[in-house]
Amino acid sequence: MSVMPIELGSVLEGVVTGITNFGAFIELPGGETGLVHISEIAEVYVKDVHDFLKASDRVTVKVISVDPKGKIGLSMKQANPSVRPAKKKFQPSFEEKLAKFLKESEERQQVLKRNTESKRGGRGSGRKAE
Coiled coil where (predicted)? Predict the structure, then answer.
């Protein structure tokens, strides 16, 4: 059986054979294995590879590098521009995340302020001299 050479820029289908904290190993047609680095899994921030992939998943990948030792670098996000987490149906935009953070931050500030005022002697901490 002749092994098809893995060409830079080609889009292939492969199978996830292993997941690490820095990416996923993909077995390509012909038996070669490449790595999809965690930064190349999706357009969104990937904290945990397991949120996106599991062993034996079939995935479409693009070959983005082949080094002289034969290490193959792969990208899912360049092959599928709209990869989204499997578990999460809705992915909030940056603006939505920022708005949520600011709201929660404001609420935490209010709680801190209330707690601090009560320790200083309640609401009348700024008592006027009579």
Answer: none
